[in-house]
Amino acid sequence: MRGRSRRRRIFAWAGGSLGGVVVVAVAALLIWSQLGVMQPEAEPLDAVTEDGVIEYADTSAAITLSPAEGGSEAGLVFIPGAKVDAAAYANRLAGLVVEEGMTVVITRPWLNLAFFDPRPLDAFTALAPGVDTWIVGGHSLGGVRACGLGGDADALVLFASYCANDLSASGMPALSIGGGEDGLSTPEKIADAADLLPAGAVLVEIDGASHASFGDYGAQAGDGVATISDAEMNAEVVELVSALVRRTD
């Protein structure tokens, strides 16, 4: 009886210790996910929110950019990079609304990390029910998550990212855009994972673009130095993604 009681105490102590470690780990993750989140630069964001052509809606689930007048036939669900606020991508993607009449839904991932966000694609496409064709895309870690949702979309676009799952046999139109000065998702890393992209995917490297060139949130540790302007990046994004939309027709 004494032996059983001792074993029970040991098991209870071990269970309590393990539970305490889990609680501490979860608390640490929650705190870390909220610290150092890269915020949008004010001027590029103001240019979007003050543009009368764009209807800007910001909720806890996502930021939605849509034409102020008329509907959209095509839409983009875009997933931010790790610990980058969704609004930091608004200016880079706004040209798709203004010039192409698209609707853009920029998700707000749980814990600011797409890896921890289990929501399906239709949780975001439901925010624009009138759109018929949906592209899913993302930047950096957000692109990895976008690949995981690719089976539910009509096309895929990656910004400075690559897939961790195999979509080579999916047959969906796909576009992978990298930066020549990217110090994080380097051109070499993107090329090494290219065989996981859908067959026929278009790969483009933008000269002078760094990892942070795909948003407006300032410099990023470990990144290269961009030599391309924001206006040039906006133009490149609109041209390349618009061509992808035409491939889905």
Descriptive overview:
The protein is α/β, with parallel strands linked by helices and 249 residues long. It has seven helices and eight strands. The protein is 35% helix and 18% strand. The protein has an eight-stranded mixed beta sheet with strand order 1-2-4-3-5-6-7-8. Helix 3 packs across helix 7.
Global geometry: globular
Strand content: 15-25%
The strand count comes to 8
Helix content: 25-40%
In terms of quaternary structure, the protein is: single chain
Derived from helix and strand composition plus strand pairing, the structural class reads alpha/beta
Question: What does the secondary structure layout of this molecule look like, with pairings?
Answer:
Blueprint: H1 2-34, H2 42-49, E1 54-58, E2 62-67, E3 74-79, H3 90-100, E4 103-107, H4 122-125, E5 133-139, H5 141-148, E6 155-159, E7 174-179, H6 187-192, E8 202-206, H7 230-247
Parallel strand pairs: 3-4, 3-5, 5-6, 6-7, 7-8
Antiparallel strand pairs: 1-2, 2-4
Helix pairs in contact: 3-7
